[in-house]
Amino acid sequence: TRTSARALSASGDYERAIEALDALLEGPAGTAPDPRRRIELELLRARCLFELGDYPACEARLKALLAGPAGPGSPGRAECLARLAETLSLRGNHDEAIAALDDALALGDTPALRRGMIAALLRACRADAVLPHAEALLAADPAEPFAHFARGLALAGGDRLREAIEELAWGLALPGAARDARMALAQAFGKL
């Protein structure tokens, strides 16, 4: 069942989750699930492939989904584009990842999509393009540490170093980002 596939995925047993998802996607006696459920199952299958490190298979699955059930007008399209962008970005296909996120943002602006865009832009070494996305996040939540840190990274590339330092300090509170924040702060202080 879908619940057991989710439970297997949540427990980290991705291979067994994929087997369960394949059975669900085939359906009883060859009857496929309705399009909305198919998108949900395919997204979970793609996530399992991603977690197993099979990025090419994940990318192929997501692209097939976007060409089929998650095509234009589909309610699952934005999520599928965001997952594809994450996979592409980690594989170094930054331009394609950013284009996928632009398409997803055009369907509906959400904080998760903005965070994904910031991450993709930073992986692509385009800190200058981060600023509008960080500011959009801060407009929605002025106390978001990730948005402040991202804004600091964008400002550090220009001549607004004092402002950048204040923003970069927010990164010290982010789980897993303290080392990067210390390094960015040291570089900013070195430019003063």
DSSP summary: helix tally: 11
How many runs of DSSP E, i.e. beta strands?
Answer: 0
- Helical fraction equals over 70%
Question: What's the Cα radius of gyration?
Answer: 19 Å
Main sheet, how many strands, which sense, barrel?
Answer: none
**Uncertain regions spanning at least 5 consecutive residues:** none
Question: What overall geometry do the principal axes of the alpha carbons give?
Answer: elongated
Element pattern in H and E = HHHHHHHHHHH
Short structural description:
With 192 residues, the chain is mostly helical. It contains eleven helices and no strands.
Structural description of this entry:
The chain has 192 residues and is an all-alpha fold. It has 11 helices and no strands. The mean pLDDT is 91.
Task: Based on the model shown, name its key terms.
192 residues; mainly alpha; 71% helix; elongated
List the topology elements.
Blueprint: H1 2-10, H2 14-26, H3 35-51, H4 55-67, H5 77-90, H6 94-107, H7 111-123, H8 131-140, H9 145-156, H10 161-168, H11 178-191
